[in-house]
Design brief:
By secondary structure, the protein is an alpha/beta fold. It is built from 18 helices and 24 strands. Bound molecules: alpha-D-glucopyranose and calcium ion.
């Protein structure tokens, strides 16, 4: 099945970040080149980003939906993690066809989430704690309930007509491209009001904006300035690679579905649009920018974030998260992908490091082992990986607790529009519903969207009402309150990792070198900067594994391990063991 997120049965995105106050020397000013290290230090490179899915984080008013007041009530918790930046999924006004990724008013807050006053309090509270805020900017498309679209569809001559992509029906049916949220539906939707088709790459309630129209671009610059003037610290450009499309709308060759990215986006003008955004907005504020997706080629990705080109700060490439399948994944491929991406940005540009987000199933369930025996240790191993690679780590809320997939077995438990579309399609074609549900249980986006587990009280302390999506049954043991009390919990291990990263500039900027490349069980690498070398060894399997690093580990200093106690045989790793050594 061709999917936007390949492992998802329905949401189909194929390749679809205060900085650590590094107290090395007080004259070390962020944003300037550090001549001692010959590294281009930036706050957004040194930050650990914590992604909050607002709908599922904390409900304050008992309606079952997370909200801004809920986030405000948990700011001290967020601070305690040692993270520097919060990336918040969209909180703008939205009819919620795609949980806020369908914006109906870019300058207002979704009523489910609160008010602009709540937003101001939240931002102030974050800044007071030295944490920056990055907002999602969803401008490949708007909601069909946005005033622009309402105007646009009202008549062929409306001034807003050109804000979207319309093709008149008398010229025939537009050449087929499928909706990324529904492989079986044309991304062109017929609208009888004006006898014309509009384009929606995502759901039919998410019409694509026409970026070739300078007025649309100006609207977006103004929206960005509105939020930057409010004091936010960055933008995550949602699905931005699709903003630039071939508006001659050619017919695609047979089988294009397998490689749709090549046809759907990055086609014309994307780098120009980004340069314009940079000139008009980004360059005028101390904000960071990251595009979802990294284009079709390494060159595209590199060009987007090459500082000399004045586009964006960092890429967010999907190759890493695309590896895990319900059938498992191959560590050699995993190592190859991450090593390749590191090499592309070794000299110029910057990368995000992540293995999970709101569009992916849970980290430990996909890349680790969520069985009772190995959940904690494998979750810690994966966190060690994320926090010791070069690039800015993006860490998804709940993963610090080792939250796992909820194991939904009934379609009634699911909420995701893309999954529900696919379900109906399977019904129509007489597909196997048990197979569909089995795959969904592993890879559905809803796996990562279940309520954040705060304590062992009803609904995990997330809400006093009925949660919009079911709480994972394991909340009684896996929750913040329980993990606070356990010094060896996933939560406290994560805090050690953020501290380690802050205290070791080598983990941010240091050269990455892969070791024991062909070892199918162990991922081993060094990070090196100014004579300081850290060695990271990670066993990705549930059995004991050997590692040949080429270093004399007898003199290596143990910096951190996810197992308690000393290590007797340093050439062997226990199941899912992760160790960080300093090489003397
Ligand atoms: C991005 C978002 C995803 C959303 C889609 C459409 O991929 O991460 O959640 O559904 O864009 O806006
Ligand atoms: Ca609420």
């Amino acid at each position: 099945m061709n999917s936007y997120i390949p492992s998802s049965p329905a949401f189909n995105l194929k390749k679809i970040v205060v900085a650590c106050i590094i107290i090395l020397c007080s004259g070390n000013v962020f944003g300037q080149t550090d001549t001692t290290h010959k590294i281009d230090r930036k706050w957004w490179k040194e930050a650990v980003v914590y992604q909050i899915y607002p709908r599922s984080f904390k409900d304050n008013n008992g309606d079952g939906i997370g909200d801004l007041k809920g986030i405000i009530s948990k700011l001290d918790y967020i601070k305690s993690l040692g993270v520097d930046v919060v990336w918040l999924n969209p909180i703008y006004s939205s009819p919620n066809d795609d949980n806020g990724y369908d914006v109906s008013d870019y300058r207002n807050i979704m009523s489910d989430f609160g008010t602009i006053e709540d937003f101001n309090v939240m931002l102030k509270g974050l800044h007071y704690r030295g944490i920056k805020l990055v907002m999602d900017l969803v401008v490949n498309h708007s909601s069909d309930e946005h005033e622009w679209f309402k105007q646009s569809r009202s008549s062929r001559t409306n001034p807003y007509r050109e804000y979207y992509h319309w093709l008149n029906a008398e010229n025939g049916k537009p050449p087929y491209r499928y909706s990324l949220f529904d492989i079986n539906h044309d991304a062109w939707r017929y609208d009888s009001l004006t006898n014309a088709y509009y384009l929606h790459y995502f759901s039919r309630k998410q019409p694509d904006l026409n970026w070739e129209n300078p007025k649309v671009r100006q609207e977006v610059f103004n929206i960005m300035k509105f939020w930057a003037d409010k004091g936010i610290d960055g933008f995550r450009m949602d699905a931005f690679q699709y903003a630039a499309k071939d508006t001659t709308f050619p017919a695609f060759p047979k089988g294009f579905e397998k490689n749709f990215n090549q046809y759907y986006g990055m086609v014309t003008g994307l780098h120009g649009y980004l340069q314009q955004i940079n000139k008009e907005v980004l360059s005028k504020y101390n904000v960071m920018s990251v595009a979802e997706g990294a284009g079709n080629t390494y060159e595209d990705a590199h060009n987007m974030v090459d500082a000399d080109r004045h586009e964006l700060n960092m890429a967010y490439a999907f190759d890493g998260v695309s590896i895990a399948k319900s059938s498992g994944y191959n560590l050699l491929e995993f190592k190859r992908v991450f090593s390749k991406w590191d090499s592309v940005f070794a000299d110029k540009g910057w990368l995000s490091i992540f293995l999970a987000n709101h569009d992916q199933a849970r980290l430990v369930s996909r890349y680790g082992n969520d069985s009772p025996e190995f959940r904690e240790v494998s979750s810690k191993m994966l966190s060690t990986f994320l926090m010791t690679m070069r690039g800015t780590p993006y860490y998804y809320n709940g993963d610090e607790l080792g939250m796992s997939n909820p194991g939904f077995t009934k379609i009634e438990d699911y909420r995701d529009v893309s999954l529900l579309n696919e379900y109906h399609h399977q019904l129509n074609i007489g597909g196997s519903i048990p197979d569909f549900l089995k795959e969904a249980k592993f890879s559905s986006r809803d796996n990562s969207r279940t309520p954040f587990q705060w304590d062992s009280s009803v609904n995990a302390g997330f809400t006093t009402g009925t949660p919009w999506i079911k709480v994972n049954d394991n909340y009684k043991t896996i929750n913040v309150a329980a993990e606070e009390k356990d010094k060896n919990s996933c939560l406290n291990y994560f805090r050690k990792l953020t501290k380690l990263r802050k205290e070791n500039l080598v983990l941010v900027y240091g050269k990455y070198t892969l070791l024991d490349k062909d070892n199918p069980k162990v991922y081993a690498y060094t990070r090196e900067l100014d004579g300081k070398k850290l060695l990271i060894v990670l066993n990705f399997t549930s059995t004991v594994a050997e590692v040949k690093t080429g270093y004399d580990l007898s003199t290596a200093k143990l910096v951190l391990s996810n197992y308690e106690g000393s290590i007797s045989d340093k050439s062997k790793l226990l199941p899912y063991q992760a160790v960080v050594y300093q090489i003397q």
